[in-house]
Amino acid sequence: MWGGIRLALNTEYPILVVSSGSMCPPNNCVLPVGALVVIRGEDPGALKVGDIIVFRGNPSDPNYLIIHRIIILYTPSNDAAYPGQYAFVTHGDANPPGFNEGPNPASTLVGVYQSTIPIPYIGSAILGIRGFMYDDRTGQPTLQGILVIVSLILALFVFEVAEPGKKKSSNVPEKTDSSVTATNFLTSVLTPKN
Question: What is the pTM of this model?
Fold first, then answer.
């Protein structure tokens, strides 16, 4: 199913959780922390100033994604930073003036914001679990995250291996008298008599 969503929306990250308040100014919050957003892959030629986009903000970390609004768009004919390519400068609506990202080449584009999924608290729960399992500064698993994973593996082991008698196989037929009789009859017919 996930592969189908990725294919349909033409991006590797079709659904994301907003993890910072940079798009949520006090007077007009567009994307609050914890919002689940739908992203669609887009041809850079279709971008326009004002679009909210997701892009890779750090070349050394391809998983570091930023969702901000395009404030300047360069086309292949007017791009001095990346001649012959599309590029963009973005700004978070809640960020102070001058705190812009870019210009960024179109190759960093992940997709364009389409909508917010209106399921309350799901995104916040995902962020809470991620914060519990991983260190936000390093991206490495935390000790409690590792302990939770080990505990789940042990629980599965105990449930599946240590108590196999509690599971009843439904695809093996039970032995009946008629099948025994038929087997005995075939054995007596097929066994040579001296």
Answer: 0.68
